[in-house]
Design a protein that fits this description.
- This protein has 2 domains: 97 residues; 239 residues, BirA Bifunctional Protein, domain 2 (2-Layer Sandwich).
- It is α+β, with helices and mostly antiparallel strands.
- The chain is elongated and about 120 Å long.
- The chain binds phenylalanine (PHE).
Length: 369
């Protein structure tokens, strides 16, 4: 490589000539002055200060100059670039201010405008009551247990001692999945969770099992093909029907008020023995409407009691099916419909109000629980 040419005159390098540099600076300052927004200014910046800009290209020539010439050319170049950069800075600030002002203008909120009321949803009362009930039992030391909505027929029927020819097992009551002998159904009650709990949990068992269940009913004022139940199951040593009754009474009082009790009427369920229907003392008239035509009660139709659910002592056959020794352990179970509970608790007369999701219905129950 040859040594730097000491006699080289920077003025001879055309791109470093003061006239050329002045031209470039003038062109840059004009372009900057004409930029009307930040995008345009960005393009101008690239064109006049970028790597391929005339000033940047001229700057590269400085390196080849002899030392004496370098200083002078460097100074001139510094002034040129400084002028352009400063103009860019000033213009940037100006355009940013303009943009901010524009944003403030377009995003102005007219606080005097009439607002449009938009209805906000609230939690569905079924969700709320389900949580309330679960909380009652969690407070008693129960655990929450859940099972699948698509259930094995064995859990939904067989293990619960519901014989293959039981009417509940026909297609008139049960939604089958795929085809009738797939072995799968949409669970018709929450009782299969009893079986799952007995098979999966350590004894003693205290569980509460809320959930969605399915039956082939047409939707009308009192039926829905999809509804909710809550089930409770207790298996321990020395559990008697007195424990069942006491638990139901406690449950009734937490849901319907102090002093409200339950009544058991003999009944039949294949998975409990003995079995009973649970009636709730009417929380509206507390029985005062019975035989008293002058004060009729709409809640209990002046009967004093309201049908609430089913219950019983777990059938020893079911215990055996789940590998539990019925000579050592006994238990009780009960289950009730949540829609029904909600209907008589709140005087809801049409089941359809609960499934249609109309905000005017849920809103009446407010937020949360
Ligand atoms: N599973 C029963 C039904 O759906 C209710 C029930 C639950 C009865 C627990 C007894 C014990 O009708």
């Amino acid at each position: 490589m040859s040594a730097p040419n000491k006699s080289f005159d920077p003025v001879e390098v055309s791109t470093l000539a003061p006239v050329y540099l002045d031209q470039q600076v003038t062109a840059a300052l004009d372009a900057i002055a004409n930029a009307s927004d930040l995008d345009e200014l960005k393009a101008v910046r690239l064109l006049h200060t970028g790597d391929r800009s005339p000033l940047a290209l001229a700057n590269r020539e400085i390196g080849a100059l002899p030392p004496a010439a370098k200083a002078e050319a460097g100074k001139r170049m510094g002034q040129a670039r400084g002028a352009v950069n400063q103009a860019l800075e000033v213009k940037t600030a100006e355009l940013e201010a303009k943009r901010d002002e524009q944003i403030l203008l377009t995003e102005t909120v007219d606080v005097t405008a009439v607002s449009e009321l938009s209805l906000r949803g609230s939690r569905h009362p079924l969700t709320t009551i389900q949580e309330q009930i679960t909380d009652v039992f969690l407070a008693l030391g129960y655990e929450l247990a859940e099972g699948p909505e698509i259930e094995a027929e064995w859990f939904n029927f067989d293990a619960l001692n519901i014989a293959p020819n039981h009417p509940a097992r026909t297609m008139q009551d049960t939604f089958f999945v795929e085809h009738e002998d797939s072995g799968l159904v949409l669970r018709t009650h929450t009782s299969p969770v009893q079986i799952r709990s007995m098979l999966n949990r350590e004894l003693p068992i205290y569980v509460v099992c809320p959930g969605r269940v399915f039956r082939t009913d047409e939707l009308d004022a009192t039926h829905s093909p999809v509804f909710h139940q809550v089930e409770a199951l207790v298996i321990d040593k020395g559990i008697t029907m007195a424990d069942l009754k006491g638990t139901l009474d406690h449950f009734a009082q937490t849901m319907f008020g102090a002093g409200i009790v339950t009544r058991l009427r003999p009944s039949y369920f294949p998975f409990t023995e003995p079995s009973a229907e649970v009636d709730l003392q009417c929380f509206a008239c507390r029985g005062a409407s019975v035989d008293n035509p002058s004060a009729p009660c709409r809640t209990c139709r002046s009967e004093g009691w309201i049908e609430w659910g089913g219950c019983g002592m777990v059938n020893p056959k079911v215990l055996v099916a789940c590998g539990i020794d019925p000579d050592v352990y006994t238990g009780f179970a009960f289950g009730m419909g949540l829609e029904r509970t909600l209907m008589f608790r709140h005087g809801i007369t049409d089941m359809r109000d609960m499934v249609e999701g109309d905000i005017r219905f849920t809103r009446a129950f407010g937020l949360g629980g």
